[in-house]
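In this notebook, the sequence line spells out the residues, with the fold written below as integer tokens. This is how one looks.
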Amino acid sequence: MPAALHARKTGLHLMAALVAGLSLMHPAPAAAQTPATTVSVSLPGEPLLVQINQVALERRGPKRAIVEYTGQATEGTYTVLRDGKPVRHGALRPLPPFTGWSPGKRYFSVDFSDAEQGGEYRVEVGIGKQRATSASVPVRDQAVFATTGAQLLGYFKRSRHTDEADRDLPIFQTSRRVNAWGGWQDAGGDKGKYLSHLGYANYFNPQQASMAAWVLAYGAHARRALFAAHGLQAQIEDEAFWGADYLHRILDAEGYFYTTVFDQWGTPGAVRMVTGYEGAAGTYTTLYRSAFRAGGGMAIAALARASMLARESGRHGEFDGATYLADARRAYEHLRRFNPQYCADGKENIIDDYTALMALVELHHATGEQRYLDDARERAASLMARQQSDGGFISDGGSRPYYHAAEAGLPVISLSAYTDIEPEQARRQHALDVIGRALEHELDITDAVANPYGYARQRFQLTQDGKAAGEVLEGFFIPHRNETGYWWQGESARLASLSAAMVIGGRKLANHGTAGYGLSARQAGYAQAQLDWTLGRNPYGMSMLYGFGAKNPPTVLESAGEMFVGGISNGITGAVGSDTGAGISFAPGPDSEQWRWVEQWIPHTTWMLFAVMEMSRQ
């Protein structure tokens, strides 16, 4: 979100040193107030570094450390220690030359995936006269979920919005007032509530509060055994019903959901209201009716799933399961008729397809009615028709490639969900074929260049006259010159969504791999690499999950706001000033821009929770 508006909101200038030496499951210490100072985080300058997931690694899964070296030697050795005792020793494996982020560095890897005994692990490395040791990482079963699940869930409760003023809010350019109480604040520095934002840009809608509500309801219902085994079932049910109750309140009598509750990021004098908005100035608009792609589809999915949870658990929130299901039905019928009218450009695109498909799958699960299967087939067919010969998708009816900074895995996840309700083998096989090609595309584009960390790459176009046009490019990070006009940030949510897609889609293909998560070695390595990046195995050696790992992001209240344990910062981006998002950057300052890297955002924790609950399937 625009940083200048955060600055007007808080008037605070803080600096915090990078938080070091955190014990697992303990919050990072709060920053101390100081005079206005720019927080700046540069790439570590040590000649030898060992980067590793600092939070948890699966006992029977990929385990890899990346070694960065600045020097002339070409060979080195490593030792893997478990609970302080050596268990593996060997030669470092050199990786292909890579100069995109730090010219002059050489990269090596250490693979200790075959170390399957639980314990606390470190990797020691020697190259020439240099020696370095990684952070420690626990290795266990259901690793990240078991280690972080309680705090990931706790993030949502800490993010609840309970201001009584939201019980009586105006709707922009109307005389109406409505009850939009509850839900979750969107981010550390933003008390607004969003089913989705960026709708004016058409192809950038992220699924925000509605996605959180669905993941919580799905987890509480479909993954009950996992949460119960870790003593978290009551907690996740409470949060799922909190989300469903909010969706009920923001469902208008006409049948559409309110897209945002917004006050220009707390700008003094701005009226908090139900409204749409656009651009860096947060200009209010009448685009406040949620299309499928603007959170409406996932809100329907969440309510349908919450109705099943209420029916089977015997519990509910302020409203009951029958109400949740009636809401989901009514909202779907409304959007089935009017959805294009709620799209900024009047046309549906790929995001409408996959979010509507998720809504229909959940409605079919909740009711068993044929009409929802019939509509799901139409949506799945529309989505699958957008796939290109190389397995990637296009976003529109033309040639714009699909790329998304928050939910790039959702097309595959939605098709995988569709296969669960499709009884006809030919239709189901078609969907599986599309899933297979899509996953191959993700693997191929990621492996197409030297890529020491295995960071998921993407293809994109730059904007020309406000529209994506011209040559289709490829890169690591989202382009900074895009249709939103201002919005680019770290991609922690995107990475977790792709991990989830690889795990869910890969299992659907029935390869029954043995490299972890029921996947082939290539698939498992990809899924693990995306989470590893967020959890510390990145060039900054920083865990974006606050309260976990050896080093967390700094606190910058001016633009990034509060930092909650279990929250995940936006993360690493391409270099500032790069239209294509080339290069690499994290929190270079000034403080008014630090939200792009440091701020916690609800989709990040949502997608991490979803990914790790799916990775924890036995």
